[in-house]
Amino acid sequence: MGRWALDVAFLWKAVLTLGLVLLYYCFSIGITFYNKWLTKSFHFPLFMTMLHLAVIFLFSALSRALVQCSSHRARVVLSWADYLRRVAPTALATALDVGLSNWSFLYVTVSLYTMTKSSAVLFILIFSLIFKLEELRAALVLVVLLIAGGLFMFTYKSTQFNMEGFALVLGASFIGGIRWTLTQMLLQKAELGLQNPIDTMFHLQPLMFLGLFPLFAVFEGLHLSTSEKIFRFQDTGLLLRVLGSLFFGGILAFGLGFSEFLLVSRTSSLTLSIAGIFKEVCTLLLAAHLLGDQISLLNWLGFALCVSGISLHVALKALHSRGDGGPKALKGLGSSPDLELLLRSSQREEGDNEEEEYFVAQGQQ
């Protein structure tokens, strides 16, 4: 009976993990292709991103209100000092990462975007070393060389290469390294109480919106104010369709953020990293078949080299955590059995000051 119960529990966990991975795939791959499709007719990616942030904030606030009503416990609200000092850097880096990523869709194909964005792991490693979240090892140097070499091979003599778009994606990947390093440092601060993903997204969005607004005002403000699709609209039906398309993209963005946190909380950041590798393969295959992106043999070899580097990094993280006597480095939110992401807040024992490490190696929109 005990063996049967263990088998059922293992099977249920495997099915749950698979379901969460598929949910993450739907939102992540879906929003990539959706944003690429939308930017073909709507050439204001920064405004699109800002509207997405507003939708995410709206849904996060609504979710917090529902949780508070059902649990009868007040949600965490940071002081202005903590908010500006600890959350602002992470919010600004996240806003630039997402904004530049969406901006690049005006110039690059989905395949080039996917491959270049995968280099975020390289920058995450670099900034982890700078902030001493990782120790310099020969294996990490090999990971960096594999990813950098793979990126070079993928973009070398690519028939659909665009320098401006490539620079935007590479800039987003660079800032993404800062973003996820700061995210880890932010969520290690247990006293802030931002372990719940809804609370994290709720606090990040306003500063992300404000951080992205100057960039929007400079590059898109004037053009958007004279656009007949938004402010100078003449066809109400067209305006409603555009706003509806943008709002649906915001729903996908909220689903992506929540599915990433949900997957990590129920499994580990290692699971998200592994899932991210296969997601990129699926994205490239879909881009080649559905959008006609041209990928040469050299490009595929470069991608394989990059995936090898990412896989080696994931394997090293797993071995390192096992060598420490347990999945401490990958513990993340899933270590707390009392965490119910949408139904209740995290319950922690009094006097427990152990820092939780939360690191998403494949964060992208």
TrEMBL record:
Residues 19-312 form the Sugar phosphate transporter domain. Keywords: Membrane, Transmembrane, Transmembrane helix. One of its GO terms (molecular function) is antiporter activity. Its main location: membrane. It holds the Pfam family TPT. One of its GO terms (biological process) is UDP-glucose transmembrane transport. GO terms for cellular component: cis-Golgi network; endoplasmic reticulum-Golgi intermediate compartment; Golgi apparatus; membrane. The chain crosses the membrane at residues 12-34, 46-67, 112-131, 138-156, 168-187, 207-226, 238-258, 297-316. Residues 344-365 are annotated as: Disordered. It is a multi-pass membrane protein. CDD domains: TPT_S35C2 (cd21092). It is found in: Membrane. This is Solute carrier family 35 member C2. The lineage of its organism: Eukaryota, Metazoa, Chordata, Craniata, Vertebrata.
